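> example.struct
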């Protein structure tokens, strides 16, 4: 348990450091930092409980993500335990929702609320609005809760599957596990581009010349937008589908920051790109300004 505590402390210190270095994004670190810490703690505590799905190499090569082969989220997943963790983190990061989260936590403990039927893969906002009214909480806070609950459980599935998928080639711009598009690209050693899934945080390598969203290829590699004064941080922009992907060059960095933290510190690029009329490949709570 000591190593878990140390690990959490290091992540908390990293959040504080980056929040200070990036004052323009301090509100993002304040709001989403507790969610990241809570997620990290929850995953660490469950690292010995691993469940995997059998992978069909042919389907995988054909670009069929696991979510189209299996139902990834199941009724007997730890919805209650995960739900309490997410509600607690949202209550800390979003003071305006803390009363809603307190109320929701009570319902979860009493087993009168179950997150599974409203999991984010069920895209039914009306159903969630009705559920929020029944609970006497804001639909927007339940929406945020369900989104992060789904993310947490899918991230666990992705972590459990990572070793098995590592040796299988995946040539698509969407996530091999949950099918979502990436919210961030990281350039690592040998200039390889790694995409990070916006939903389950899985990472996979992908050609630097191709648009992950529409497969359009630009051999000239002219589709990177550099912001004046910043050499490491850019955005891949696609002239065809008008989507962008924030890209951070971490190849020379010994210190590896958590990808979500990199994304928060680069949120000013999201603003610039959206003002230019581009849209993010994955719309997340922290990168959408409309
Ligand atoms: Zn994913
Ligand atoms: Zn494109």
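> example.seq
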């Amino acid at each position: 348990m000591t190593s878990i505590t140390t690990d959490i402390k290091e992540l908390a210190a990293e959040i504080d450091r980056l929040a200070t270095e990036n004052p323009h994004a301090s509100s993002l670190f304040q709001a989403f930092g507790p969610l990241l810490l809570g997620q990290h703690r929850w995953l660490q505590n469950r690292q010995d409980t691993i469940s995997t799905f059998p992978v069909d190499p042919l389907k995988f090569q054909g670009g069929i993500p696991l979510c189209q082969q299996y139902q990834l989220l199941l009724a007997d997943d730890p919805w209650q335990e995960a739900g309490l963790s997410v509600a607690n983190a949202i209550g800390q990061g979003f003071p305006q929702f803390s009363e809603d989260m307190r109320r929701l936590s009570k319902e979860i403990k009493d087993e009168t609320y179950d997150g599974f039927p409203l999991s984010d893969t069920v895209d039914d906002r009306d159903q969630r609005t009705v559920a929020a009214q029944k609970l006497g909480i804001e639909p927007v806070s339940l929406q945020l809760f369900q989104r992060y609950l789904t993310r947490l459980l899918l991230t666990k599935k992705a972590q459990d599957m990572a070793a098995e998928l590592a040796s299988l080639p995946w040539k698509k711009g969407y996530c091999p596990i949950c099918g979502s598009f990436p919210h961030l690209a990281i350039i690592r050693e040998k200039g390889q581009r790694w995409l990070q899934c916006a939903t389950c945080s899985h990472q996979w390598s992908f050609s630097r010349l191709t648009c992950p969203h529409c497969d359009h290829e630009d051999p000239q590699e002219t589709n990177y937008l550099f912001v004046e004064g910043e050499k490491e941080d850019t955005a891949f922009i696609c002239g065809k589908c008008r989507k962008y992907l924030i890209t951070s060059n971490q190849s020379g960095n010994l210190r590896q920051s958590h990808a979500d933290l990199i994304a928060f510190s680069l949120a000013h690029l999201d603003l610039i790109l959206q003002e230019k009329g581009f849209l993010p490949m994955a719309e997340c709570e922290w990168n959408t300004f409309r």
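> remarks
The chain is about 45% helix and 10% strand.
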